[in-house]
Amino acid sequence: MILVGGGIVDRSENAPLVPVLAKHFTVYNYDRRGRGDSADTTPYALQREFEDIAALIDEAGGTAYLYGVSSGAALALEAAAAGLPIAKVAAYEVPYDVSEGAKQRHLEYTEKVRSLLADDRRDDAMRLFMRLAGAPEEAIAQAHNSPMWAGSIALAHTLAYDAVCLGDGTPPTERLATITQPVLMATGGTTDDTMAGLSNGFFDTAAAAVTAAIPGAERVIIPNQGHVADPEAVVPVITRFFNGNDSNKLG
């Protein structure tokens, strides 16, 4: 199983999942391009991220499961649509936006974040991202004053990468419809305080749209989980899906 991380994180974000999943699978927890111990290539291209996943799949023996979180969930789905030898995909809280004006908002955000990063205004780029993610100003101020802010700023250049992973910000239904592998779309059903500004049911609505687009995709809500879910809550759900226990079908 390959763990595909989300925005403004390195592989340490998924590290708590590894010992729990390792009871069931051989787990590859990697730093996405431009993060942590991984190298980078400019200019960024989504194809380079596909190549990284393909290299991991080759290392794993030629096929693998993917578990992606947030923008990493979008990347995992895009990798499946691109034809990589992926057996199954589980995606948690993919941040596609299906509300009115979503494409225009994403375009404006992408252009603005690229401009800020080009001027090396990493703090401003992070604040812009947090506002997009629904964080109230109080939460942004608290984050800015926390010990974790410096680590996030070090990864701020990858905000532009995740913007590309999300395409125009809406579910790419035509590409998703070409996915032939089994797919599980999961959400936690609880909005984090740092995402209080998002519309009610934001992730659930996105997951429903993706589920409808992919033939045979399954949908599940993992109760009482926020955007960063408890491994003990996630692992039983995705393990059952990856192990293909049809007698205990997810719904």
From TrEMBL:
Residues 15-235 form the AB hydrolase-1 domain. The keyword Nucleotide-binding does not apply. GO terms for molecular function: hydrolase activity. Keywords: Hydrolase. This is Alpha/beta fold hydrolase.
